[in-house]
Structures are given as C-alpha cells and as structure tokens.
C-alpha cells in the first residue's frame, strides 16, 4: 500500500516581500506535489513567482529546476516534482508596486 502525507507549509499567511517557505524533510517520498492557494493578490502589476529548491541537509539550498508559471490572480495552482533528494522548500518572489499576497501552501508527499 502506498503512503501519503499532506503538510500545510503556510496557513493563511500574508506577505509583502520575497520569502522562502519553511524547509520540509521528505527523503522517504518518491514524489511530491506543491499546491499554492492564493486567496488575495493585490498591488499594481502584482504577481507571485515560486521556484522549487532542494537541499541535502535543510541548511544549504539550490534551485531544483521546477517553477510555477507566474501567478497573477487568486486561485489554486499546482506543480509536481520528482527526484528531489532529502529536503524541499519554495523560494517565492513578489513583483509589482505595493504587492500583498495572502495564501496557503501545501506539500503533498507520496511513497
């Protein structure tokens, strides 16, 4: 039987500047899927970027290569990742003037 686990990484969080999610240890999983639920995205020319980063130890990070398409409005967005090693996080950037985003970020892991 396959095992799965859903981690809520950010819960109804509001950001006004670039941020990284908390790292999550997931070496046991063979596949992962990120979900970003954007409840609000405000500001002139506002958009959110998010790229997947990997780490062998949860301390030092590099880009994995996968990234969400730029997000410019409320909604649910998803991105699948495989062959990621021990730790995952998202490196997120905000573009636009006086940008504010309120969101939830989930990481779903499967063995």
Strand and helix map with partners:
Blueprint: E1 4-15, E2 19-20, E3 24-25, E4 31-55, E5 62-67, E6 75-82, E7 87-110
Structural features, described:
By secondary structure, this protein is an all-beta fold. It has one domain (4-110): Jelly Rolls. The chain has strands spanning 4-15, 19-20, 24-25, 31-55, 62-67, 75-82, 87-110. Strands 1, 2, 3, 4, 5, 6 and 7 form a seven-stranded antiparallel β-sheet that branches.
Instruction: Find the count of extended strands (DSSP E, 2+ residues).
Output: 7
Tell me the domain tally: 1
Give the CATH architecture: Sandwich
By CATH, the topology is: Jelly Rolls
What does the largest sheet look like?
Answer: 7 strands, antiparallel
Mean pLDDT: 96
Termini separation comes to 9 Å
Radius of gyration equals: 14 Å
Number of helices: 0
Derived from helix and strand composition plus strand pairing, the structural class reads: mainly beta
Helix content: under 10%
Low-pLDDT residue intervals, each spanning 5 or more residues: none
Judging from the principal axes of the Cα atoms, what is the shape? Answer: globular
Query: Briefly, what CATH class?
Result: Mainly Beta
Beta-strand content bin: over 45%
Return the string of H and E elements: EEEEEEE
């Amino acid at each position: 039987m396959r095992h799965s686990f859903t981690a809520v990484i950010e819960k109804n969080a509001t950001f006004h500047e670039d941020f990284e999610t908390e790292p999550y240890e997931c070496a046991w999983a063979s596949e992962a899927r990120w979900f970003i639920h954007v409840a609000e995205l405000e500001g002139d020319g506002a958009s959110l970027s998010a790229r997947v980063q990997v780490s062998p130890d949860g301390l030092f990070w590099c880009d994995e290569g996968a990234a969400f398409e730029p997000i410019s409005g409320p909604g649910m967005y998803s991105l699948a990742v495989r062959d990621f090693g021990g730790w995952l996080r998202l490196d997120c950037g905000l573009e636009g003037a006086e940008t504010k985003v309120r969101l939830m970020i989930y990481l779903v892991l499967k063995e």
